[in-house]
Every structure is written in structure tokens, then in C-alpha cells.
TrEMBL record:
Annotated ranges, domain NIPSNAP: 8-99
SUPFAM superfamilies in the record: Dimeric alpha+beta barrel (SSF54909)
InterPro entries linked: Dimeric_a/b-barrel (IPR011008), NIPSNAP (IPR012577)
Protein name in the entry: NIPSNAP domain-containing protein
Pfam families assigned to the protein according to its UniProt record, in alphabetical order: NIPSNAP
Source species taxonomy: Bacteria, Pseudomonadati, Pseudomonadota, Gammaproteobacteria, Pseudomonadales
Length: 101
């Protein structure tokens, strides 16, 4: 299993836009074969940092998801909204191997 950890720098004045985007991506990841562990939005502390975690059985499955997402109408629309509205300023993606009981 491979887990993708994403750290977002977001526009804190567009938190509602980011939250709507996040809810939609959870469904996209699940529909395209992944397990989404959720988004974690600012509460106390920094108001412009958010995180998400999602997993795929393998890196190859993650890469297949990325290819599918390029032509998936919902994911294409979500990316277009980010570009247009600019509520995500930057992001960092890391891949981890979970240690589960």
C-alpha cells in the first residue's frame, strides 16, 4: 500500500471554496479506486495550511488513478476551479508506506 500525503497552502479567505473542492475530491479518489482518509482543514494555529491523506494498493495503482483523473470530467472541472479561483496557492506531495496493525 502507498499513501499520498498532501500539504496545501491555501487562501484562508477562500476556505469555503477549498472545503467544497476537498469534499468533491474524496468522492473522485474513491470512485477511481483509492481509499481517502480525509482532508484536515485549519482550525487552531495556521489559517492557511491544510492536509489530506489517501491510499492506493500500489504506486502503479496510484499512477493509473492519475492517468484516469486527467480525462475524468469531474476531476478536470475541479482542477479548472483551482486555476480560476486560486484558493490553493501551492502544495507538496509525499508518498509514505503505512505501518498498520
Amino acid at each position: 500500500m502507498i499513501t499520498c500525503h498532501v500539504k496545501y497552502v491555501i487562501d484562508p479567505y477562500q476556505l469555503a471554496e477549498f472545503e467544497a473542492y476537498s469534499k468533491a475530491w474524496i468522492a473522485v479518489v474513491r470512485r477511481l479506486g483509492g481509499t481517502h482518509h480525509g482532508y484536515f482543514l485549519p482550525s487552531e494555529g495556521a489559517s492557511n495550511i491544510a492536509y489530506c491523506l489517501f491510499s492506493f494498493p500500489s504506486l502503479a495503482d496510484y499512477e493509473a488513478y492519475r492517468q484516469s483523473a486527467l480525462s475524468d470530467p469531474e476531476s478536470v472541472a475541479l482542477v479548472a476551479a483551482v486555476v480560476q479561483k486560486r484558493f490553493i496557492l501551492s502544495y507538496e506531495r509525499s508518498f509514505m508506506r503505512p505501518l498498520l496493525s
